[in-house]
Write the structure tokens for this entry.
Amino acid sequence: MPVETVAASAKAAGFQGLSMRASVVSIETPPARVQDVRAHLDNLGLDVSMVTGDLPLAINNAEATHALKNIEPYLDLADALGCDLVRVMMHHEAEILDAQRAADIAAERGIRLSHQMHWGSLFETIDGALETLAQIDRANFGITFEPANMLACGEGYGPEAIARLAPHLFNAYFQNILLDPASPMTFATRCRGEVPVRFVALTDPSGIDPFPLLEALKQVGYEGWFSIHQPLIDDTTVEDAISQAAAAFLPHL
């Protein structure tokens, strides 16, 4: 579905912004198209919460860490979209220096870098994330809280986890899953191997209860974005998904 259609539906439902993925605009997108997307969002009064500048970042393959080695195109894309948050990925401790350099370049332009709590990375666990952040030691390098990935990695994701991550929280994502040994879909974690998961409805109590997490985010003073990045389930349409997400979450934000 074209981003123009999604954006109009999101605005009508009451959302304030979109998290911009590479399937819409990336560092390879012609500048004119990026400008068109920015103009369309501006006309609707929608912000861009975060930029994921290439497909490997979302796929989390071996090329996902390349952004840290050449951060300028990702910063340019963020600037063009009026956004101050760029997603990055780290797989190895050897990338600490790359992260420091990228953060320093981003800081000069008033942009922050955020690493999602994510399987297959240095940010699978809270201890791993905090240790990596301590080594990077840059105020503009932080975390995107993502409880589904933490669940798959066997990590607690409740209020205590949020309190530990609070000083570094730049963003919050939500998708709802449950662990299901019979599911063909897996998250390729480092700490637990291939973990079978199944997506369930956003407020399905058999999965992750988002509302205590929202309250915990408020308790630690988090005032950033809360983004729904749930895939379509069963026969749900995009319009239905937007409406359901709005009804479930906007009254609590």
Residues 3-174+209-241 form a domain with the TIM Barrel fold (CATH 3.20.20.150). The mean pLDDT is 97.
